[in-house]
Amino acid sequence: MATSEPQRGSESEESTAETSSPVVSNPEQYIKHPLQNRWALWYFKNDKSKSWTENLRLIAKFDTVEDFWALYNHIQQPSKLGFGCDYCLFKDGIKPMWEDDRNKLGGRWLITLSKQQRHNDLDRYWMETLLCLIGESFDEASEDVCGAVVNVRPKGDKIAIWTGNCQNKEAIMTIGQLYKERLNMPLKAILGYQSHDDTSSKSGSTTKNMYTV
Amino acid sequence: MSSGCQKTVSQAIPTRRVTVNDAAQLPHDYSTTPGGTLFSTTPGGTRIIYDRKFLMNCRDSPVARTPPRYLPNIPGVTSPNTDEIKLEADHVSAHVDKQAGGDESQFEMDI
């Protein structure tokens, strides 16, 4: 089956493969560093004409440090999102909702930001949160992490790390303490952990904290 | 083939924890296959931990400066924050204003 003209695609691929080895001066630059987990970044936009799940959109999945930055560097920061929008970063296979089997017994460390903090802290806190997750910053307790959510709201934005079981006190406390340190929050600031059960059943504005750091 | 044959004792496969602070410390065989399947870690084995400094150093790597290939177009998220309200309005009326090229006058209605 010798045809005179080879297919363009395969030809160009082969020729670059053959000639590339002497050209790459620093292969280290092109190695991607694998993450412990594969992560999915979701975007939620509050469109009242659609259902909650219709408003939830997967942006991309990644499992290397470089692919994380490629994504992060090419999407808007939370402070540039419209009101009512969220970003959610979750381990692949866990949906960013309470109802998911891996979330339903869990809860979240919740940071409530003031309006002024949108300019000063929101983007920085969110990036630190992402780095904590993908870098597995909580040692063994990283197993308990399901994901993180940022809510952009007119009254004040929120950032939370979700964990899988609100009874795992030890893991939750480890995560809370390390998270507070990483965000450089003042010692006197109080970070609270709330179970999803309490959050979803409480209709008022305050949910009781199961744990605090 | 000497006579000093030692008995082997079965042992658990050793695991070790490695904190990577710099790219140079990462073994060369840590990598991903095309499409992203991870190899060189085993279940329950080494947890891959990256500290903040290492992650930040990767931020401007050549690979990270290229947009991901299959990024969906979500205005205001993956593409520049154009006027979302206007976009939506355009979208709704797109079938009306195609022919007239978006001229204002076309919105006049016969009543």
From TrEMBL, chain A:
Sequence segments annotated as region (Disordered): 1-27
GO MF annotation terms: RNA 7-methylguanosine cap binding; translation initiation factor activity
InterPro entries cross-referenced by the UniProt entry: TIF_eIF4e-like, TIF_eIF_4E, TIF_eIF_4E_CS
Keywords (A to Z) from UniProt: Initiation factor, Protein biosynthesis, RNA-binding
Gene: eif4e1c
Full protein name: Eukaryotic translation initiation factor 4E family member 1c
Organism: Erpetoichthys calabaricus (Rope fish)
Cellular component aspect of the GO annotation: eukaryotic translation initiation factor 4F complex
PROSITE patterns linked to this entry: IF4E
Cited PANTHER family: EUKARYOTIC TRANSLATION INITIATION FACTOR 4E FAMILY MEMBER 1C (PTHR11960:SF29), EUKARYOTIC TRANSLATION INITIATION FACTOR 4E RELATED (PTHR11960)
Family designation: Belongs to the eukaryotic initiation factor 4E family.
From TrEMBL, chain B:
Family assignment from sequence similarity: Belongs to the eIF4E-binding protein family.
Source organism (scientific name): Erpetoichthys calabaricus (Rope fish)
UniProt GO BP: negative regulation of translational initiation
Taxonomy, superkingdom: Eukaryota
A GO cellular component entry from the record: cytoplasm
PANTHER family in the record: EUKARYOTIC TRANSLATION INITIATION FACTOR 4E-BINDING PROTEIN, EUKARYOTIC TRANSLATION INITIATION FACTOR 4E-BINDING PROTEIN 1
Bilayer-crossing regions: none
InterPro entries for the chain: EIF4EBP (IPR008606)
One function term, GO molecular function aspect: eukaryotic initiation factor 4E binding
Name recorded for this polypeptide: Eukaryotic translation initiation factor 4E binding protein 1
Keywords linked to the UniProt accession: Protein synthesis inhibitor, Translation regulation
